[in-house]
Amino acid sequence: MSGAAPVVSGRDFADRLERHGFDFFTGVPCSLIEDLIATLERGSGAPYVAAVREDAAVGVAAGAWFGGRRPVVLMQNSGLGTSLNALASLSLMYGLPALLVVTWRGFGGQDAPEHILTGEISPRLLELLGVPYRVLAAGSLDADLAWAAREMDARRSPVALLVPPRVVETGAAGPSPGPADTATSPHGRAPLTDAPLPAATMPRLAALGIALKAVGDDPVAHANGYICRESFSVADRPQSFYMIGSMGLAPAIALGLALARPDRRVVVFDGDGNLLMNLGILAMIAVQRPPNLVHLVFDNEVYGSTGNQASLSRGVRLDRLAAASGFATATAVTEPWALESALRAALAVPGPHFVLVKVTSEAAEVPRIPYTPAALRDRFRAAILGG
Question: Does the reported pTM lie above 0.90?
Fold first, then answer.
């Protein structure tokens, strides 16, 4: 149409992202960039990880960056609200670069009612977070991507491109392929079991000692709270990434790292409260099916850092959720010898594997992690990329 503003196709957008060095993509869909997402889903040289929530995508991108990638997180501007804690207490606190491609629903006050307020405050949300941003136009795409790559690397920080309506072409790419059926995997699905578990008698500190010995030099993403502190007291290692905030995102970080570095086995030390906060990650792992991922959940059935309030894991078997999601194996243990056996089995064959470790609710008297977030970031990434 004469005088119409130029638009960029989804294919051209994807090509230019890769041309500027962006080589890992994750996010939650929005109709304003449906053709871009369809192009990424069809596959190219870079992986695309469909996320169930925007904060999970931020975690996946963090893991990909640890693995040497330059990640992109796609989200609608409503997802800024969902991802605020992940951006504040993960990406910005540790200094983890990522490009946030944020669609601008409610732009100019023209949209469905649910988008108007978010559209009005989107630039201010980014300013409040201290995330540098530009408003994308089709004619400035190359310049904006060059700016984004330069800024996120120099700042060690996420940066954002706000994408108004009608900048990216929509409706031309056609439907995206459905997810792969994990039931056709050569490993099948983990069997479900109705056998009741004996009462836990193993303290978490003892279980962590067994797990740390078994994983050797493998990188381990730790859930925040006492799991970090107890693991640190047993054996501090540069291959351990200790989460200070961002509850629930350790397995998302591990998933991004496992996909970015398929040559390295990646382990998660998770907690029941952490996993319950981000149950959708089980589906994300099962669909991506990284063979090099081992997910351990130390389940004490309480929120230990806040006064031992009861966790819902008292009434829900988390290993059954993992099995139903499609993990290669899902095992539950309550005794030291059973944990040792489960880890030997999980580390011997391709996964992903899930091990539910039922532990007692006692917490050891252990110190806080003494390192700065930047020091934790740098030594963990160096251990991965130098290994």
Answer: yes
